[in-house]
Amino acid sequence: MAMWTSVSVFVEAESVEDINRVVNEIDLLEYYLPKWDVYGTDADSSSLDDIKEGSCDWLGLLSLIGEKMGGRGKAWITEKCDEDYAYTTTYEYENGEITTITEKEDDDDVEEDEDDVEEEFVIKNGVLIRYIGDSKNVVIPGTITEIEDEAFCSFFCKMCLTSVVIPDSVVKIGTKAFYSCGVLNSIVIPDSVIEIGELAFSNCSALTSVKMSKKIEFIGFSVFSGCTSLKTISLPENLVIIGDSVFSDCTSLASIKIPGNVTSIGESAFSSCSALREIELSDSVESIGSFAFSWCGSLTTIKFSNSLKRIDGYAFSNCTSLTSVRIPESVIRIGDKVFSSCDSLTITVTEGSYAEEYCKQNNLSYSIANNLS
Q: For residue 278, what pLDDT is reported?
């Protein structure tokens, strides 16, 4: 896993007034920078070494620097990694507008196997460490077995990457591999892939469709969260667990079919999917996590399976269009305020069931049915 151990941000400007404007008006703590250096005409360099390290919104920071500058200059970021990798993004601006964006690998800081790097890729032992090219449509080489964490998270990828072809040699996609690639519009994950890291495609706001590997059994934290254009996704039949926040804030997702082997739906898995109208749960689903479908304002109906045992707190809270649900006799635990703010909801239960007692204790409207199969 790539860990950034040193990050330096440099600014070059025409006047000391511009430098002072950057230093005084940008809240460095917002960007979690371990080092900040400013250079300019008649200006001394300054650094803040005690700012905590963490994820940085490079795109936001560079854009903000450009906005603050009145004249012409440069801003650049150098990232160094504990795996002997360094990368520099240079942003040239004039009167607050971008004029040139340049990205490059820093050769002096990279140690690699000879002939292991193709023109647009940094590759080590079959692992794609970083994409450093400028193509909007990328075909990953067939020699790659793993896509490293944050491999496609450069300034260029966030702004310009439209499509990626992943070869069937790849078995793992790392954490944040395509995080915030804002114009990536579709992705096919080949059947060779057995693992997808957390946040791998999170905030890919132009992504409209995803074809998943048939071998995926677990989708982890926030893999597709914030994919606001995602309308359709076919989940693999081998899938067993849908993790926390996997599809949260996918505001264009209108329907989802849960495959037959899924046993667990995680916390906030589909929260704030405001276009989601219907959910088809498989007979294998045993538990629904807290806030799993909260704030799904278009959801009108859901059919629970007879295998369902647990519904955690706030799972369907603020589903304001939900009018009816049938809770099977198999359910033996229901958390707090599962149907909070579902003001039009009527619940159907089996007489003498745990669900009936829950409705009584929480003053929920319900009706009795003897057969919920």
A: 85
